[in-house]
């Protein structure tokens, strides 16, 4: 059986990764909270205030380091990063 040379991993394109992180965090700052607000009103009923109140509360909580608020904001990029790591590990296991 012939030995194969281990493949060297592709270098990370940091510019592309930063763009993806910015996009993911932008989604976490704008789109995800709007969806949470909308579905929350639909399922749980009215919220004491407008979406502006909800967003300002969220942003203050992020600034103060509340874990749930931070998780909501970085969630889209975090899910992408977890998917990339899982894909990489699955590819390594399949060698």
**Major beta sheet summary:** none
What is the number of domains?
1
Radius of gyration from the CA trace?
Answer: 19 Å
Q: How many distinct beta strands?
A: 0
Strand content: under 5%
Form type: elongated
Taken in chain order, the helices and strands follow as HHH
Q: How many individual helices?
A: 3
Low-pLDDT windows of residues: none
Distance between the amino and carboxyl termini = 15 Å
Q: Please bin the fraction of helical residues.
A: over 70%
Structural class determined from secondary elements = mainly alpha
Mean pLDDT: 88
Task: Describe the fold and architecture.
By secondary structure, this protein is mainly alpha-helical. It has one domain (14-93). The chain has three helices and no strands. The chain has helices at 14-44, 51-63, 67-93. The relative contact order is 0.12.
């Amino acid at each position: 059986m012939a030995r194969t040379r281990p493949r060297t991993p592709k270098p990370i394109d940091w510019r592309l990764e930063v763009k993806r992180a910015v996009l993911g965090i932008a989604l976490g700052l704008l789109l995800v909270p709007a969806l949470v607000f909308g579905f929350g009103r639909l399922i749980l009923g009215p919220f004491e205030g407008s979406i502006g109140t909800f967003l300002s509360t969220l942003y203050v909580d992020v600034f103060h380091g509340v874990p749930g608020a931070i998780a909501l904001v970085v969630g889209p990029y975090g899910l992408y990063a977890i998917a990339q790591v899982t894909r990489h590990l699955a590819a390594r296991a399949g060698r």
